[in-house]
C-alpha cells in the first residue's frame, strides 16, 4: 500500500516497474527530432484504414500489441487495460479494448491521460489489485481537428499560439515485478481555471495547471526541481512552457529554467515543421516519454524523470458557449536505480 | 467566442494571469498578414475579372450578366483546390485573401462535405455541407429580408 | 478590358480582404463571424444602393468578395418587391444568387464524391 505525502502526492511502498512500452506515430511525427525512437512510423496518416478514426484505433491497438510483444506477454496475462483518448466517448480506447480483450477501465484526462494512466496503474499494482496493467493513449491530428476545430481542408488562418495535434499512440506496461524504470511518486492534480477561453491558446490555459501540480509535488515530497534530471510537461508548447516557468516562480519560488522541457516542443522541429507553438494531443507526452525518454532511462542516460502531463478538459460545445477552459495536470515520477 | 450568459468577473489571480499571457504570447504578424491578404485577395479578384471579361466577350453578355458564370467559375476553382488538398496550404499564406472571396465560400462548403464523407451521403455530405457556410447564407437572407421589407413597405 | 479595370479589381478586392484579415488578427472572431458580418455589410450597402457603385468602379474587386452575396440577395428581394410587393421579398430573394449557391452545392457534392480528405 501507498503512503500519502502532503496533500496530493502518493509514494507506493513497492514502486512498480514500467517493463515495456510501445509507440507508433504518424509520418509527420516520424520526421521530428525524436522520430527515430518510435517503434513504428506509419507512411500515411490513414494507416491503411478507411477513416481517420479507424486509423487512430489501429494505432492504439498496434502500440498495445507492440508493447506486449517486446516482453512476450499475451493480453490474457494482463489484469487491466487503462486507456483514454480525445474522441467523443473515448471511442478509440473502447475499440482497442475490444481487440485486446483485457478487462478495461476507460479513463479521460484529455492530454493528461498518459500520466493519469500511469498513476492509476500504480494504484492498482501497488494496492495488490493487479500484477500487470497496460496503460495506453492516442490522438490523431485529423480526427481531433474535426471534432474540436474545423474540417481539415478548411483554409482557416492559424494564430501563432495554435498547436498541432500529434498523430500517434503510446502504451506502457506497468508490472509488480520485473526490470526497468520504476514509478516512485505520483501527484494527482486539481482542475484549474485561469480564465482562458481561447481554444487556440491551450498552452496558456494549461500552464497554470501544470505549475500548480508541480509546486504541489515539490512541496509534498520535499524534493525540489533539482532532484530530477529532467522535468517534462505534456503539451504546453513554446509559450505555455514559458508561462509555466514564470508561474512556478511566482507561486512557489521554484526555478525550472535548468532542467525543464516540454514534450510538445521536443517532438517537432519548431523551425522546420510548420506547427506554430508546438504539439498538443494525448500522444505528445506518450510518444516522447514512452519512446525517447524511456529509452534514455534504459540506457542509463537519464535517472530521474518527472512527467507532468497536462490536459485541457473543454469540449467544442463548452468553448462555443463561452465557458472558460478547465485544465488539469498529473505528475508521475519515474526513476531508475 | 465569448458570449457568457452570466458574466462571472475574473478573480484577481485570473486577471493577473491573463495580463501575463497577453504580455508573453506573441501577436500575429499584423503587417505581413495584411500584405499577404491584400495581394492574394487582389489576385483572386483579378482572376475573377478575367473570367468576367472572358464571358462578356465570348458570349456577348453585359457586365452584370457575365458576373454570374464568373462567380461559378471561381467557386469551381475553389472547390477543385480544396479537393486536391491545396486550398488549406495556400490559405496558410493568403489568410483572408482567400477566404473572403467566393473561393473561401466554396472552400467552406467543400471542406465540410469532404470531411464528413465517411459518415455517408445523407448524414455526412448532404447535411454537413453547410456546416460552416450556413451562417453566411442565414445572415445574408435575414439582412436581405429586413431590407426588402423596409423597401417594400416604406419606400415603394 | 483595360488595365485600369484590373488595377481597380486588385486594389478594391485586396482592400476588402485586408479589412477582414485585420479583424481576424486583432480580435478573437473566427472566419465564420467575419464572413457573416461581411455579408450583412454588403446587404446594407446594397440596400442603400452603394454596393452597385462600388461594382461599377471595381468590377470583380467588388463582385468576388463574399459581401457581394449580401448585395445580390438584397437586390433580388428589392427588384421583385417592386413588381409584387411584400410577397416579392420572398420570391425574389435568391433570384440573383442562385448561381453561387447552386454552383457551391453541385461542385461541393461532386468534389466530395471524387476526392478524399488528405488530413
UniProtKB/TrEMBL annotation, chain A:
Gene3D superfamilies recorded: Stage V sporulation protein AD (3.40.47.40)
Coiled coil regions in record: none
GO molecular function, one term: acyltransferase activity
Pfam families named in the record: SpoVAD
Transmembrane segments: none
Protein's UniProt name: Stage V sporulation protein AD
Organism encoding this protein: Desulfoscipio geothermicus DSM 3669
From TrEMBL, chain B:
Residues passing through the membrane, by range: 29-50, 70-87, 94-114, 129-154
InterPro entries (UniProt xref): Spore_V_AC, SpoVA
Domain of life: Bacteria
One matching Pfam family: SpoVAC_SpoVAEB
Keyword Nucleotide-binding in annotation: no
Keywords, comma-separated and alphabetical: Membrane, Transmembrane, Transmembrane helix
NCBIfam families per record: spore_V_AC
This protein's name: Stage V sporulation protein AC
UniProtKB/TrEMBL annotation, chain C:
Listed InterPro entries: Spore_V_AE (IPR014204), SpoVA (IPR005562)
Superkingdom of origin organism: Bacteria
Key words, A-Z: Membrane, Transmembrane, Transmembrane helix
Record field: transmembrane: 6-27, 34-51, 86-115
Name under which the protein is recorded: Stage V sporulation protein AE
Organism name: Desulfoscipio geothermicus DSM 3669
Amino acid at each position: 500500500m501507498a503512503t500519502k505525502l502532503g496533500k496530493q502526492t502518493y509514494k507506493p511502498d513497492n514502486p512498480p516497474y514500467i517493463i515495456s512500452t510501445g509507440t507508433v506515430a504518424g509520418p509527420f511525427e516520424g520526421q521530428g527530432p525524436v522520430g527515430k525512437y518510435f517503434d513504428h512510423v506509419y507512411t500515411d496518416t490513414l494507416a491503411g484504414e478507411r477513416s481517420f478514426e479507424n486509423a487512430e484505433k489501429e494505432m492504439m491497438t498496434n502500440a498495445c500489441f507492440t508493447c506486449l510483444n517486446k516482453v512476450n506477454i499475451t493480453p490474457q496475462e494482463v489484469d487491466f487495460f487503462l486507456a483514454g483518448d480525445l474522441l467523443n466517448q473515448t471511442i478509440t480506447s473502447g475499440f482497442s479494448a475490444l481487440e485486446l480483450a483485457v478487462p478495461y477501465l476507460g479513463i479521460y484526462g484529455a492530454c493528461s491521460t498518459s500520466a493519469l494512466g500511469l498513476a492509476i496503474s500504480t494504484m492498482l499494482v501497488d494496492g495488490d489489485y493487479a500484477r500487470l496493467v497496460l496503460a495506453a493513449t492516442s490522438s490523431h491530428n485529423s480526427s481531433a481537428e474535426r471534432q474540436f476545430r474545423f474540417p481539415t481542408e478548411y483554409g482557416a488562418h492559424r494564430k501563432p499560439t495554435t498547436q498541432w495535434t500529434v498523430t500517434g499512440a503510446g502504451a506502457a506496461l506497468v508490472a509488480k515485478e520485473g526490470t526497468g524504470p520504476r514509478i516512485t511518486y505520483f501527484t494527482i492534480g486539481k482542475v484549474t481555471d485561469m480564465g482562458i477561453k481561447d481554444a487556440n491558446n491551450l498552452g496558456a490555459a494549461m500552464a497554470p495547471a501544470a505549475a500548480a501540480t508541480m509546486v504541489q509535488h515539490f512541496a509534498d515530497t520535499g524534493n525540489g526541481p533539482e532532484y530530477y534530471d529532467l522535468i517534462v510537461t505534456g503539451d504546453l508548447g513554446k509559450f505555455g512552457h514559458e508561462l509555466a516557468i514564470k508561474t512556478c516562480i511566482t507561486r512557489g519560488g521554484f526555478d525550472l529554467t535548468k532542467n525543464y522541457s516540454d514534450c510538445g516542443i521536443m517532438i517537432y522541429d519548431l523551425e522546420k515543421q510548420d506547427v506554430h507553438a508546438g504539439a498538443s494531443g494525448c500522444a505528445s507526452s506518450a510518444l516522447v516519454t514512452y519512446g525517447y525518454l524511456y529509452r534514455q532511462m534504459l540506457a542509463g542516460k537519464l535517472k530521474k524523470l518527472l512527467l507532468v502531463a497536462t490536459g485541457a478538459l473543454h469540449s467544442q460545445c463548452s468553448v462555443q458557449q463561452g465557458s472558460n477552459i478547465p485544465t488539469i495536470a498529473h505528475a508521475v515520477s519515474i526513476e531508475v536505480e | 467566442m465569448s458570449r457568457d450568459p452570466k458574466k462571472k468577473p475574473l478573480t484577481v489571480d485570473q486577471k493577473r494571469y491573463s495580463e501575463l499571457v497577453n504580455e508573453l504570447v506573441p501577436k500575429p504578424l499584423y503587417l505581413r498578414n495584411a500584405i499577404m491578404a491584400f495581394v492574394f485577395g487582389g489576385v483572386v479578384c483579378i482572376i475573377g475579372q478575367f473570367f468576367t471579361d472572358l464571358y462578356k466577350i465570348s458570349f456577348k453578355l453585359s457586365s452584370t450578366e457575365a458576373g454570374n458564370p464568373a462567380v461559378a467559375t471561381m467557386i469551381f476553382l475553389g472547390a477543385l483546390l480544396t479537393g486536391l488538398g491545396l486550398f488549406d496550404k495556400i490559405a496558410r499564406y493568403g489568410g483572408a485573401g482567400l477566404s473572403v472571396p467566393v473561393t473561401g465560400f466554396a472552400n467552406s462548403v467543400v471542406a465540410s462535405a469532404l470531411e464528413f464523407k465517411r459518415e455517408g451521403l445523407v448524414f455526412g455530405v448532404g447535411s454537413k455541407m453547410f456546416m460552416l457556410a450556413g451562417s453566411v447564407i442565414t445572415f445574408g437572407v435575414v439582412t436581405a429580408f429586413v431590407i426588402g421589407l423596409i423597401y417594400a413597405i416604406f419606400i415603394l | 478590358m483595360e488595365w485600369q479595370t484590373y488595377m481597380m479589381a486588385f486594389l478594391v478586392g485586396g482592400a476588402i480582404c485586408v479589412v477582414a484579415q485585420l479583424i481576424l488578427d486583432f480580435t478573437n472572431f473566427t472566419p465564420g463571424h467575419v464572413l457573416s458580418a461581411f455579408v450583412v455589410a454588403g446587404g446594407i450597402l446594397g440596400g442603400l444602393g452603394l454596393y452597385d457603385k462600388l461594382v461599377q468602379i471595381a468590377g470583380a474587386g467588388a463582385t468576388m468578395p463574399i459581401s457581394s452575396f449580401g448585395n445580390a440577395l438584397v437586390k433580388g428581394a428589392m427588384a421583385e418587391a417592386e413588381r409584387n410587393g411584400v410577397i416579392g421579398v420572398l420570391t425574389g430573394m435568391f433570384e440573383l444568387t442562385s448561381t453561387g449557391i447552386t454552383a457551391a452545392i453541385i461542385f461541393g457534392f461532386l468534389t466530395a464524391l471524387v476526392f478524399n480528405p488528405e488530413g
